[in-house]
């Protein structure tokens, strides 16, 4: 399948024409996502429907799906993470327009009248990454107990801090 998201396009024209774009993008081409992967493999799937609402506002209704092999921060083994996100964005020229944008739209910044679709998809995946990637305790090669022991004990740290203050 060809990468239909590789070019920037005029969202207003696409909205008027009611265009729908659907396709896959190699994750390796999304640098901020690829940086989080154990190996830069696999694809993201995206579907973007361009439309105009009853107030004449152009918007893009999208869905992005990806299966990511992240690195577990405890055991450093692969950690599978699925992204399946739906969103509604409307193109804006500046932050002023972004602030005025009514719900349920999220702003997507225009660059010289164009929207960078690949960037839009990349942003959506990055927003849906876990804060800290790690397995559920029972699935992780490093057991929670081992992990806790290696960390400084918070109460011990607090006690020494208290001691410093009172000394
Ligand atoms: Zn793990």
Fold blueprint:
Layout: E1 8-9, H1 11-17, E2 20-26, H2 31-34, E3 43-52, E4 58-71, E5 78-92, H3 95-100, E6 106-109, E7 115-116, H4 117-127, H5 144-150, H6 154-166
The structure holds zinc ion (ZN).
Summarize the structure.
Helix content is 29%, strand content 32%. The chain has 6 helices and 7 strands; from the N terminus they run E-H-E-H-E-E-E-H-E-E-H-H-H.
Description:
- The chain is of the alpha+beta class and 167 residues long.
- The protein has one domain (8-142).
- The protein has helices spanning 11-17, 31-34, 95-100, 117-127, 144-150, 154-166; strands at residues 8-9, 20-26, 43-52, 58-71, 78-92, 106-109, 115-116.
- A five-stranded mixed β-sheet has the order 2-3-4-5-6. A two-stranded antiparallel ribbon has the order 1-7.
- The longest helix has 13 residues, at 154-166.
- It is elongated.
- The chain starts with 7 loop residues before the first strand and ends with a helix.
- The model has no long low-confidence stretch (mean pLDDT 88).
- The structure holds zinc ion.
- The site of zinc ion (ZN) has 9 residues, from loops.
């Amino acid at each position: 399948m060809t990468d239909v998201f590789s070019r920037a396009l005029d969202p207003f024209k696409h909205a008027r024409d009611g265009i729908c774009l659907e396709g896959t993008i190699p994750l390796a081409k999304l640098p901020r996502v690829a940086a989080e992967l154990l190996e830069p493999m696999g694809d993201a799937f995206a579907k973007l429907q361009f439309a105009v609402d009853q107030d004449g506002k152009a918007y893009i209704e999208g869905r992005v799906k990806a299966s990511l092999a992240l690195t577990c921060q405890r055991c450093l083994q692969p950690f599978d993470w699925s992204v399946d996100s739906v969103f509604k964005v409307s193109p804006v020229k500046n932050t002023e327009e972004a602030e005025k944008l009514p719900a349920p739209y999220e702003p997507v910044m225009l660059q010289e009248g164009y929207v960078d679709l690949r960037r839009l998809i990349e942003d959506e995946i990055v927003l849906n990454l876990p804060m800290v990637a790690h397995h559920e305790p029972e699935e992780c090669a490093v057991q929670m107990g081992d992990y806790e022991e290696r960390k400084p004990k918070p109460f011990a740290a607090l006690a020494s801090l208290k001691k410093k203050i009172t000394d």
